[in-house]
Amino acid sequence: MTSVKTSFAGLELxxxxxxxxxxLTASVPNLVEFExxxxxxxxxxxxxxxxxxxxxxxMGDLGDHPEAYDYVVYSVGSKLISDYLxxxxxxxxxxxxxxxxxxxxxxxxxxxxxxxxxxEAGADALELNVMSLSTDKHAKPGDFEQLxxxxxxxxxSTVSIPVIVxxxxxxxxxxxxxxxxxxxxxxxVVLFNRFxxxxxxxxxxxxALKHPLTTAADISQSIRWAGILSAAxxxxxLAVSGGVHDWKGIAKAVLxxxxxxxxxxxxxxxxxxxxxxxxxxxxxxxxxxxxxTVEAYRGRMNASDPANADRLMRVQFLKYFGGIH
Length: 325
Prior knowledge:
Layout: E1 6-8, E2 11-13, E3 17-19, H1 28-37, E4 41-43, E5 47-48, H2 49-57, H3 66-94, E6 99-100, E7 102-105, H4 111-120, E8 126-130, H5 143-156, E9 163-168, H6 174-183, E10 188-193, E11 198-201, E12 206-209, H7 219-232, E13 238-241, H8 247-255, E14 260-263, H9 265-270, H10 273-289, H11 306-312, H12 318-321
Parallel strand pairs: 3-4, 3-14, 4-6, 5-7, 7-8, 8-9, 9-10, 10-13, 13-14
Antiparallel strand pairs: 1-2, 11-12
Helix pairs in contact: 1-3, 7-8, 8-10
């Protein structure tokens, strides 16, 4: 009998599909629907550092009243956090699959305090989404990666639940960073965070909103690095995010070494029904291929095999398509 059970970051999952952080995961009724559809876990809508700062900035100039400023900072921050903790508690009361809150941050600071409160609210794990671009010309090479390590070390030294790090693709050496994150306590990484897509309206001469959802074509970079990372740092569990739009995307991610996938765009477009269809399709494929479990084929096509490594690490296409100009 075919099983689609897996484990990721110390969490036992009934299938590899984790519903990724998005607007849908801020609603408890949606979470119940995702569980009923067969999801393995859910990542709650992120608590954004930027949201707290924005609300503080919108309170007006309190520079001449430091006591009032301190009160506003505390009140705004406390309200946002209180609402988020209520969401965690409500989710834990309503569903039985793992609930993973998410902190989207771009600096090192108050997040350690938030992480502790999130754990106390009943979270099964915590995802840290370090959302930042390295644009400081005075920064030294490696400073950006070191920021990730510093945040992870602080959080892991404070909480006992598994800490998962969702990485951006703008890294100089994902392998070295993943190894450092594992050494400092991370229990899993997700490849990759999708940055806000940039476009320009050339008639209005202004920045324009580009379609924020992924397509199946977006999976390429994530599975390449999953294949490389799972071979280089095999002790660190991986999940793939971005471009998983059907059961084939799940299978590709696992074949490259991932233990799970985070899916948001496909579920936004297809609803909870997408989960049922994807998990069913994966189980059927496993049965056809003779894979009794997910672990039976996980990493089968990663860089541990020299032939696979040659393809995963190739950045030029001329060897295969040299006749195309």
